[in-house]
Every structure is written in C-alpha cells, then in structure tokens.
Amino acid sequence: MRRTVFYCLVCQESATRRNKREGIWVMIDLRSDTVTKPSPAMREAMARAEVGDDVYGEDPTVRELESRVAAITGKQAAVFTCSATQSNLMALMSHCQRGHEYIVGQVAHTYLYEGGGGAVLGSIQPCPLPFNARGELELDEIEAVIKPDDQHFAITRLLCLENTQAGKVLSADYLAGASELAQRHGLRRHLDGARVFNAAVAQEVEIAEICQHFDTVSICLSKGLGAPMGSVLVGDTALIAAARRWRKMLGGGLRQSGIVAAAGLHALEQHVDELALDHARCARLGQALRGMATLPLAEVTATNMLFLSEMVNIEDLTTHLSRAGILISGRRWVLHRDIDDAAIEDIIAACRAFRA
Ligand SMILES: *Cc1c(COP(=O)(O)O)cnc(C)c1O
Questions:
Q1: Sign of CA dihedral 186, 74, 272, 206
Q2: What DSSP letter does each residue of 6-17 carry, written as one string?
Q3: Which domain holds residue 139?
Q4: 219 C-alpha vs ligand 1 centroid, how far in Å?
Q5: What is the mean pLDDT of residues 279-305?
Q6: What is the CATH number of the domain that holds 16?
Q7: Which pTM was predicted?
Q8: What is the pLDDT, as a whole number, of residue 23?
Q9: Are 134 and 194 part of one and the same domain?
C-alpha cells in the first residue's frame, strides 16, 4: 500500500493515522480546488502525450487542446498558458494600452489577487467597483464610471467580470445586460472564467453560451477540473496572436508542454460532468451544517463553495478539524474531485463534534 505522510498544519502531528482513502492516507483538504492531484488515468494520458516545441508551434497536444477549447467556447483561437494569472494578464495587456483603464470587481482575482499585474506590467489603471451579493458589478455603477473622452481621464477600455465569482453563478440575463452595456460604450469584454465550467455545469448550459457575451475568456484547468497546471485564453485570432506575444515576454513560452496540455485534454473529456458531483456534495454539506447551531453559515453557493458565518471562531475550528484530518483555510470551504462522499460524511461527523 502506498503511504503518503501528511502533517497537520496546526499541531504538526502526523495525520497518517486519521484518514484512509483508496489505500492512500490523506488529509481532507477543503482549502481550495487547486489541491486536486492528477489521477492515475490523467498521468497515463500525460505519459502518452505526443510533444514538440510549442514556441515553434510544433506541439501537437498543445495545438489540439487549443483548438478543442476554441471550438467548445465558440471562439476563433486559444492559447495555452502556465496559469490563470498569466492568461488574465495577457488578456488585459492585449485589450488595453498604457493609459487605458479596466473596470473590475474590488475583490476580483484580476484586481486583488494578481499582484496588481495590470498596473505594474501593463500600465493599465484599474477602476474597481464592489460586487453585489450575486457576484455582479451593478450595471448603473459600471455606466457611472465609464470616463468621457477628456484629456484628464484614463481611457476606459475594458469591462472585466468573473464567473463563478466566489462560487456564485452569474445569470444569463445579467451577462446579456452587461455585454450590451459594454458594447454600447465601445468597451471590450473579458471574463475571468477560472471556474466557468462550474458555472456552465450548474446552469446546465454549454460553455459557449456563457462565452458568447465576452471577447476573451480565461479558463483554469488546474482548479476543479483537476489538471496539475495550466489555463487557456480564448478570443478572436488577432487578439490571441497579440496575447501569444505577451505570453512569451512574460516567460510563458513553454517547450514540450504537451505533457501538461494532455492533462488538460483529459480533464475536459473526463472531469467536466463530474463537477456536478462537487456541487451536490457542497449542497449536502451545507444542508448538514444548517442543522448545527455551533456552525452558522453565511452562504452555500450553487457550485462548489460554502462560506461560514463571521460568528464562527475560526481558530478553534481550524485546530479541531485538523485533529480530525481536515484542512481548512478560513471561512471559505471548497469542494473538489479529491473529496468523495465518504469524506463528506467524515467532515460532517467532525463538525458535529465541534464545541464552540
Ligand atoms: C485561481 C484563480 C485565478 C488564478 O489562477 P492561477 O492558475 O492560480 O494563476 C484567477 N481567477 C480566479 C477567479 C481564480 O479563482
């Protein structure tokens, strides 16, 4: 039996005694859906991948991934990137020039969690607005910050949305409205769709239905889809060609990257439908927590995230759960393909035993 030793992040004790799944001893990790490990079948697909030098455009597996993602998103072209941070930045720098501005959420990944890359490396000014409770930027607030043509102002060039936003799915009506507003004002439209497949699965729509409202979409393969790394940026041919140049400058020109693109292709073929299981497990966990007075909830989303209320003593809970072999990172709990039904029941049992 393969044994992986994990250590509890809080008490530093070995956690190997605590959880046994499929012959491997592991922690149950609710911190993020980035923690998924490539499955044996995915590793096999990676080992079998045909490769070439992708900077010369000669990696057949990367090309296949790019053409597949372009086709399913209904776009002309796609480019494989190291990370979603990189593909978002490539999109910002391709849509905007120095002195341009993009409208974005205050807590959007493309504003708050990417090191200020748009401003630092692109000389692009962010114009952050608060997300409402549905994860939307209010249309009238967007309209109010679009700058008139006046030499005092930066040139408003791009609207950047996020879907899912903190696990929330943007409605088709909202997307259509935001898209119409942007076009009416001559703005380009970028979607940070790191988890856009979660949105499509939750809404039971094709991914292209969501992507039709945007000029570019960045899609992460290494979140719930379970690949070890990589994202794809899709858009029209000219924009993706520009983005490819930025990718090279940003250090993202890879060589035999078909090895990892193969993991992405495998994920697209095998893992998309299974996102529904993560959503169902999130709902099941949320329902169980609702019955526990000690663990009030702030929100259970329609996808793979739930949020505990601010009233929960998170330090005590983190210590308690880590002793049961469960890792959390604050109040956001994220379900993913390495958390199965048995793990959900273990989490529920550990939560029941928590005394605030
Ligand atoms: C994780 C994430 C990113 C960045 O992904 P990396 O691959 O870690 O760079 C971008 N946007 C959103 C919404 C994310 O959740």
A1: positive
A2: -B-TTT--B-TT
A3: 42-270
A4: 9
A5: 96
A6: 3.90.1150.10
A7: 0.94
A8: 53
A9: yes
